[in-house]
Write a structure and sequence with these properties.
InterPro entries: Ras-like_Gua-exchang_fac_N. This is N-terminal Ras-GEF domain-containing protein. It comes from Aromia moschata. It contains three helices and no strands. The protein is mainly α and 86 residues long. The protein has a domain of 46 residues. Helix 1 runs antiparallel to helix 2 and helix 2 runs antiparallel to helix 3. The protein is elongated.
């Protein structure tokens, strides 16, 4: 996944800024076209993996809380969609 960035040679703030942009883009993408995203298996797998990676980053960097909140909102919508379709 492109969300992971090797930051050994990168500035921490640059890496965090890139990760913020990824999460903010995904949030806008999902909220704009919600239904097609939630119906696509690969998109759902991507969202789940991204949410897990972000959770690790929140712990590791002690940052990205705002982005974690956005991703939590996306995953809550996904769970509601899944719950109603069963």
């Amino acid at each position: 996944m492109l969300y992971k960035i090797d930051f050994t040679n990168q500035d921490k703030e640059f890496v965090l800024a890139c990760k913020r942009r990824v999460i903010q883009f995904v949030y806008r993408w999902v909220t704009a076209i919600r239904q097609p995203v939630f119906e696509d298996e690969l998109a759902v797998e991507f969202l789940e993996e991204l949410a897990n990676e972000l959770e690790s980053d929140v712990i590791h960097f002690n940052a990205l809380q705002e982005e974690a909140s956005l991703m939590h909102h996306v995953m809550s919508q996904l769970r509601r969609k899944t719950k109603y379709n069963k």
